[in-house]
Write a structure and sequence with these properties.
Elements (H helix, E strand, L loop, with lengths): L6 E7 L3 H9 L1 H7 L5 E7 L6 E8 L2 E13 L3 E9 L17 E11 L2 E10 L4 H10 L3 H21 L1
Helix pairs in contact: 1-2, 1-4
Length: 165
Amino acid sequence: MADLPEFVLDREFEAPRELVWRAWTDPQYLHRWYGPGVETVVHKFELKPDGVWLNEMKMKNGSNFQKVIFKEVTKPQKLVWHHCSVDSDWNIAANPMMPDWPRILLTTVTFTESGNKTNVRLSQIPLDATDAEIACFAKMKDGMSGGWGGGYAIIDEVLAELKAG
């Protein structure tokens, strides 16, 4: 895997780890920040190894469907999942908007406590990808910070609400 391109995003949040974990793992908050600028519908969310998260992002020109299969859930330190492009029946398929996008990304998110702050590291690597998918990911990965960053700004709002109680 060392030869594969990797997207890494580090971010410090001004909140205790338990609250940051909650923003990432409670569908009540997750749908608000995941997919900023679109309506995100969480159809199913099973936070456990081999549990699934079925996610739909509704846009002007239709919906983008994603399936997450959790591989590791270590509260509140770590999440590992397979992030899958799927069709509307939740079957792994090419992304209709970007056919060479990897069908599966290995995603690892770690939550490290630092006083009353939490450092989050997100990593994504193509999994079982074709050469074309790896090349597409390598070309696009530098622009992925924008989407995640937009979501992270909304997480800041969610965390302010959670801290206020």
